[in-house]
Every structure is written in C-alpha cells, then in structure tokens.
Known about the structure:
Elements lengths: L2 E3 L2 E10 L5 E11 L2 H15 L3 E9 L16 H10 L2 E3 L11 E9 L2 E4 L9 E3 L5 E5 L4 E11 L11 E2 L5 E4 L7 E12 L4 E10 L5 H23 L1
Antiparallel strand pairs: 1-2, 2-3, 3-14, 4-10, 4-12, 5-8, 6-10, 7-9, 11-12, 13-14
Helix pairs in contact: 1-3
Amino acid sequence: MPKTTQNLFFSCVDSRVQDQGSMYARFHLGTFLRGQSLTFANALRRTLLSEIPGIVITDVMIQGAGHEFATLPGVEETVLDILLNLKKIIFAPSNSKITELETFQATGLLNSSGPRKLTASDLKLPLNVKCIDPTAHIATLTTKGDFSLCLNLEVQKPHQSLTNKTSSISKEKIRKFFFNNTPMPVQKVNYVIKSLNVKQGSEYLVLEVWTDGSVSPQETVQFALKNLTQLFYQFASISN
C-alpha cells in the first residue's frame, strides 16, 4: 500500500524474484518540485550502491592447499578456481535483516568424499546464515579422496576494505587464504524522472533496484532513506 504524508507518496509498484535468487523492485516516489527529484535521486542512488552491508567470506582454509596455484589430488579445479567459486557464493542472515546487523560472524565447514560435485548446499552453516543459491558450484571431486575446507564470514559495507593480508600458515599447518571481498548486495540502480503536474511544475521519481537476493529492494530503499535523513540531520543540528 502506498504511504502518504500530505502530498508525498512512496509505493512499490512491482516486485519479483529473478534468476539465482536475485530480486528486482520498482518504486514511485514524489511529489517533488522541478529539480528536486534529480538531487534526491542522485543521493539515494549513491547511498544504495555504497552503504548497504553484506555478508562476505573473510578467509578460507583448504586441507592440503599449500598455495593458491596448487592442485589437490582427486579435485578437478585448482585451489585458485575453488577460491573464485567460493567468492561468488552469496550469503544472507536467516532470521534477521542484514541492514539491522551491527556485527556478524559465522563459520562454515565442508567435508566430503568423491566422486561428486560440491555445491553451496554442501556447506555446513550455523542456523543464523544461509546461501541464496544452494546450487552454486564449488568443486568437482573425481576420485574417492577426501576434501575439506573451513571459511569465516563477516558483515561489511561496500566502502569498507579488509586490511591487506597475505596467505598464512595456521597452527594446524593449513594455509589460510584471506579474501578482500567487497559486498555488493545492490547490483544496479536506475531512475527516471517523470512529470506529475505541468502547471505546478511537480515531478515524481521512478526508481528501480536490483539486489543479489541477500536483501530485498524494499529493505535497501528504507535503509538508504533512513541513513540519508540521519546524515543531513546531523549537519542541520550543528548549524543551529
């Protein structure tokens, strides 16, 4: 249902789940005087692309992997291929909104024997986190050999960057590979400004948001509007 305050409106006019769990939604926002909609849209778009947090892999340990260019017995992919496949997996909280998480840490495990194909559904995760696409490929085991890995997850914002780290040897003499992931829960934002009343010079905004499925477009827009309001209010308070 549209939310109205005097002559303001904000409504979701289209929403759907797309391929591999990604999401899309289209919103109508108004009413703006001529020129205001462009200022509003630019600030909202930048906030959506740079402020929405996401759950990312921070580091991975793979049994028997001495370095990222190594090959493992009975595994079709190289260690580098496996790391790149893991990097593509999208995680989301199971019982809460990702925009409400201040801190989040979780550990995922994978232990299996071949021959078989390993996907994200084979990861053993705690109840508070899930994979958006369980069919995401990890590795192909060609023989009966064992394969195991351990990965750590954290919540971060796109503008946050991990301290540059290089792979290191843990106490168990297993090499730890650090990921410098940048979460991009909002994949694309598009907007069109349309005229509402020519005589009054009023306009409204058509906003489209695509996400990776870890967060809904509706949640991202609400988060962005709240963050922008708080940011501008802080500066308005200082000027008083």
